[in-house]
Amino acid sequence: MIRPKDQNDLDSPVISSPTASVSTGESVSGHEGADRLLREHDTSSRYRTDLGWWAWVIGAISIVFTLYHLYAALERPFNTWMHSSLHLAGGTALIFLLYPASRRLLIAKPSGNRWKDLLIGRGRGVAWYDTVLAAAALYCNVYIFFEYERLTSNAVQILGYTSLDYVVATLGIILILEGTRRCVGIPIIIIAVAAIVYAVFGNHSPVFKHAGMSWETFSTNTFLSTGAGVFSTPIQVSSQFIFLFLFFAVVLLRTNIGQFFNDLAFKAAGRYTGGPAKAAVVASGLQGMVSGSAVANTVASGSFTIPMMKKAGFKPHVAAATEATASTGGQLMPPIMGSAAFIMAQNIPDITYNDVIIIAVIPALLYFLGAFLSVHFDAKKNMLRGLPVEELPTWRSIFTRIDLLLPLVVIVTTLLVGFTPMRAAIWGILTAFLLSFARASTRLGFRAMVEMLVDAARTALPVIAACATAGIVAGTVTSTGLAGQLGTGLIALAGGNFLVVLVLVMIACIIMGMGLPTTANYVVTSTVAAPILYNNFDVPIIAAHFFVLFFGVLSEVTPPVCLAAYAGAGLANANPMVTGFTALKIAVAGFLVPYVLIFEPAMLLEGPVTDLLPAFVTVVIGMVGLAAGLAGFLLTDTNIVERILLIASGIMLVMPDLTLSAIGGVGMILAVIMQYLQKSRPSKDIDDDQQGLSAPPRGEPVL
């Protein structure tokens, strides 16, 4: 959710950069279209920019909001519920001030009728009704803060809730849903509304019936209960950890680390076969460590990498699909993992955040390896070369900026030595802030500091809304027992077959994840789908959570709703649906990773290292076979028999069954031998002199 302008507007050091190989017109066009593409495909980017004097008001609120979180992280002045209520109060108020009721209001020009424009909310500034909604949202959440003692006392148990409590709870839920619709999108609202209807009218449901509940009971349990509904784990984690790490990302981008990641990736992979595409995969993996949105990452990185790939010979839809696949994988890259890592650490017993980011390393690397292999074999098949060395950054230019990695090193080091994520984030923010003064291009003046504080608040708004709404869904699933009923129904549908259940859970996660930001995506899938695996089968809880996280995230490149692919297609001027299916093909090897985590717990560091190494080797070989088979190239072009053999062998190699893996290994060896013989076979167009024959006279047929 970091807007690309934070990274692109900063001047990078004067180096020999691969951007030099992109024509000026093409590069400029990409940057000019970035904002338009973000607003088209990323709901969180559709906020007001023409604010007039309101910019001062919203800016002041944003600064106070950010400074409060820094203060709370250092002093912890309130308990978790009170802190979460202030977090949600400021967040929802800012949402209504920044995000209009309709996207059309962003581009609608004044009609000339002053009163009509005022009534509709068209034109400059904030609409009057949004001011009212912002005040109402602020009141509903601050009400919890000031009424905390009564709401948590025995008086509520004895005397019940007041009429005002019911009004505040109802209004609070409605405002959260409307705010989420504005800055996150419709898909999560559909899920939340369906959950609410099911909770209240579940006694009339034809399937998965439950006792039902009154609206009064539902609204108070959802909005006025500590640790449940809106104020459950997601919003608590958002208020304590996620906001700080998003602020860390904003500060980090001020040091121009995005350009550094791009240059590092191009220097490492740019000169090899398909170099620009490989560099895009590496760069997006690195930027995923600080990014919070697949779509935003696609546009930010893609405005630079997609023109490079097209210039190197990649077809537009392939270039767009490569960037979309890599940017989607960025949501799986620790230490942030699209903010899902923090919630995962709270959801899984006996697992800390430090454990999660260490465990996530191997799955993330396997995903990017799959994308890298797909790009490699496709480039080999189409004979796409790398960039000339003189067009790549120099190692000297990279080493002179190696200090840009220091904030990330500080974050990881402080976590490993036992600091809490909150304290680690504070140290990371401080390090990145001080580092920004090391160069004239990133040195912060007073205005830049103010803008940084404002950007931090604005960046967090979609996550705050998504966490609050996801809490409504999670609370409903838990209180109604829906998760257990879904598990029973799914197992019955699969006939008890574990592999079929996994496939059905995969499909469910992809569908539920479509159009959702990573945080809400994970909350919903981990609440609804993950329990099916660990409650009914002998699946480690950590493996079940990674399984649903992976497939929820992969919805970004799974047609028909593959927003990252659509954003990439817009940058590349490619067909969106063709781009989506191409991205799916590039990510196919990555689709195997969640199954590997289920069947091979050693990949999640469960068990001895002696179990990890053979499993890792067979999985890597299997991914090579699958990627080569799908691309139609291993050592040379493959025929249909070789492609089928490579794909089948690749899939069997990742299976935990020793017999299947052995068969897959034999198949891979056979495919390599066939490819080697085909490659070493003399060409049919042999020079006649090599055969001892004289060439026929010109014009006479060759027999």
Structure summary:
This protein is mostly helical and 703 residues long.
Core attributes:
single chain; 703 residues; mainly alpha; globular
The helix content, as a percent range, equals 55-70%
- Global shape: globular
Question: How many helical elements?
Answer: 35
Could you state the oligomeric state of the chains shown? single chain
What is the average of the pLDDT values? Answer: 84
> What's the number of extended β-strand segments?
0
The largest β sheet comes out as:
none
Low-confidence stretches: 1-30, 685-703
**Strand composition percent:** under 5%
Helix/sheet category: mainly alpha
Radius of gyration: 27 Å
Distance linking N and C termini? 66 Å
Could you please describe the fold and organization of this structure?
The chain is mainly α and about 700 residues long. It is built from 35 helices and no strands. The radius of gyration is 27 Å and the shape is globular. The termini are far apart. Residues about 1-30 and about 685-703 have low confidence and may be disordered.
Furnish the topology, listing elements before pairings.
Layout: H1 5-8, H2 24-41, H3 54-75, H4 80-98, H5 104-107, H6 114-120, H7 128-146, H8 148-151, H9 154-159, H10 163-183, H11 186-201, H12 215-223, H13 233-254, H14 257-269, H15 275-287, H16 294-311, H17 316-329, H18 340-347, H19 353-359, H20 361-381, H21 395-399, H22 406-416, H23 421-435, H24 446-480, H25 482-493, H26 498-513, H27 518-528, H28 530-536, H29 541-553, H30 563-572, H31 576-586, H32 588-599, H33 609-631, H34 640-653, H35 658-680
